[in-house]
Amino acid sequence: VTIGEVLMASLHNIVLTGFMGTGKSSVGKAVAQLLGWEFLDMDAIIESRTSKTIAEIFAQEGESVFRAMESALCQELAACARVVIATGGGALVSEENRKVMAARGLLVCLNCALDELWPRLQATTDRPMLYTRDRRARIESLLAQRAPAYRSIPRQLDTTGRAITDLAREIVAWWQGAQLQQVVLPVRTPSGEYKIHLGRQLPSGEIIREAGLTGKIGLVSNTTVGALHADRVTDDLRAAGLEVARCLLPDGERYKTLDTLRALYDALIEAELDRDSVIIALGGGVVGDVAGFAAATLLRGVRFVQMPTTLLAMVDSSVGGKVAVDHPRGKNLIGAFKQPELVIADIALLETLPPAEYRSGLAEAIKHGVIAAPSLFEHFERGGRGDELAPLAEAIRVKIEVVQEDPFERGRRAVLNLGHTFGHAIELLSDYRMRHGEAVSIGLVAAARTAEAMGLAKPELAARLVGCLSRHEMPTRLPDYAPEAIWEAMSSDKKRRGGKLRFVLPRAIGDVVITDEVSREIVVDVLSKMRIADKTE
Ligand SMILES: NC(=O)c1ccc[n+]([C@@H]2O[C@H](COP(=O)([O-])OP(=O)(O)OC[C@H]3O[C@@H](n4cnc5c(N)ncnc54)[C@H](O)[C@@H]3O)[C@@H](O)[C@H]2O)c1
Ligand SMILES: [Zn+2]
Q1: pLDDT-based confidence at 8, cuts 50/70/90?
Q2: Average pLDDT, stretch 116-125?
Q3: Average pLDDT of span 300-317
Q4: β-sheet bridge partners, residue 221
Q5: Which of 157, 187, 321, 328 gives the lowest tally of CB atoms within 10 Å of its CB?
Q6: What values do phi and psi take at 177, rounded to 5?
Q7: How many CB atoms sit inside 10 A of residue 154's CB?
Q8: CA–CA gap between residue 535 and residue 480 (Å, rounded)
Q9: pLDDT at 95 (0 to 100)
Q10: How far apart are the first and last CA of the chain?
């Protein structure tokens, strides 16, 4: 399965159709409420846009004009995401309209016995299709006329005598069942290839067994993630016949140290891991980096599996093979390249992730959209979430493509630093009180404004970034640090890392350049203007 196919196969909407009176609106509202989506009623939209009732449109302009409005609206609504749409009763009689709606939505046709419909339709005055003397006969003939079109919809739901909430629950279950549940993304490395399994409630034990990783397992997690998820994962591994020893690290970046690593070596050696053993990292980037470094070095290297549990770890740190611990003089100063045998990214594990951690990963996912995935960026612009299969797959794809091209970080991989040159400086000046993702968010805006100042990008670009990031409650305003201080922080960061002060600048969504041509004057000017703009907003 390619990512394109995943995105195509994802059902972004639920579309309810069927004869008038079958309950499209009331069931639709209940479905929307269950999923936390928006509910849209096509007839109501047409009425409010034309300031006329459907009956008036029929009377004044004729049915064909109304049907043309319906077709245009189908096109428009089909492009939405996370909406429940109730169509007009005749809207999907057209095969073309059905195709448009089914491309990105789950189509459900509601039916109801005529005896139950009749009392509902007997007295209505706002249905132009029923303006006739023998109404019951008219309903029967319309039903017969539309039956072939309705019947061609694969999902049929008989609403006769059933409660609305009950019907809504059934539709939600259909939608969940129809969603693609898993995708496998291959990653080429200098030493071969491995697979990232991305999905919900993945059978981790089976996947690991099938990959031939049958040695004793050292399951490394931290106290927080361990308490939430280690039992389930352990049971799953044991059920697949695997032997598991567990090691829990203390939680936090401040424990990403050689001391923690030493304690971990002790525990793994105590558990008698051997050359056939497998180390599994169950956690965020910190656990992945520490356990990965242990796997790279213990017994000169044992096999390694990542089970990322944060959004950041899924889209960023578990891909690319970099593992490291911090040194008092700087982050990630002691490390290695260690490619995993397998990554199992289970979206269900993200359900316990605190919102601040979710946003932290979202900053990186939005960054990936800006680097090379316009459709992903547009998804976030529309307010779409990052912890769903299709956007996650797309965000991971960007990282895979970049690291495949430059596995040892010699060139192109620098594009992943978009927003990070500014971001790291802001983090540093905040004494690390500002979270990484927040600093990156501000850094993305600063990078776009710098690109604009250098004539590389149009002003709309920064505006789109601000719009997208703030829609997800990410900061875009510059904290009150002197622009000169930010420049100094960037330069000293550069000195520590060695090499030139290099910027990644966006030219457009999906198009970035790496440059070391950015002068102090430009940066100070851009940051000063960002401060003034912030204050006058
Ligand atoms: N190796 C790489 O290429 C790479 C890339 C980017 C970042 N990193 C590293 O990753 C680290 C940051 O990773 P992170 O943002 O995942 O932080 P993290 O690992 O510290 O996790 C964040 C917090 O969330 C908790 N947590 C994790 N999963 C949870 C879950 N499912 N439910 C509830 N709580 C959960 C953790 O216990 C922790 O308190 C940094 O050390 C950074 O240097 C490495
Ligand atoms: Zn980052």
Answers
A1: very low
A2: 88
A3: 98
A4: 248
A5: 328
A6: -65, -30
A7: 10
A8: 10
A9: 94
A10: 46
Does 535 qualify as catalytic in the annotation?
no
* CA 55 to centroid of ligand 2, rounded, Å: 56
Please name the helix (run of DSSP H) or strand (run of DSSP E) that holds residue 524, with its range, or none. helix 520-536
With 80 as the cut, is the pLDDT of residue 11 above it? no
Query: Could you tell me if the CB of 222 is within 6 A of ligand 1?
Result: yes
Provide the whole-model pTM: 0.77
Q: Out of 119-128, 266-275, 306-315, which region has the weakest mean confidence (pLDDT)?
A: 119-128
> In the numeric block, which tokens belong to residue 320?
């690319």
- pLDDT surpassing 60 at residue 6: no
3-state SS, 231-261, equals HHHHHHHHHCCCCEEEEEECCCHHHCCHHHH
pLDDT given for residue 104 in this prediction:
81
Residue carrying structure tokens 């709309």? 460
Quote the pLDDT of residue 175.
87
Alpha-carbon dihedral sign for residues 268, 349, 180, 312 = negative
Task: Bin 81: left if φ > 0, else alpha if -120 < ψ < 50, else beta.
Answer: beta
pLDDT, position 498: 60
**Exactly one of 24, 229, 256, 322 is catalytic; which is it?**
322
Distance CA 297, CA 291 (A): 10
Asked whether 363 lines ligand 1 (CB < 6 A), one says no
Looking up tokens 């980037």 gives 285
CA 319 to ligand 2 centroid distance, Å: 13
Task: Supply 33's token pair.
Answer: 């409420």
Q: Per the structure block, which two tokens stand in for 318?
A: 């578990």
268-283 confidence digits (pLDDT tens): 999 999 999 999 999 9
180-204: b (≥16 Cβ within 10 Å) or e: bebbebebeeeeeebbbbbbbebbb
Which helix (H) or strand (E) element contains residue 67?
A: helix 63-78
CA angle 154, 182, 7 (to 5 degrees): 65
- 496: nearest Cα among 435, 412, 425, 436: 425
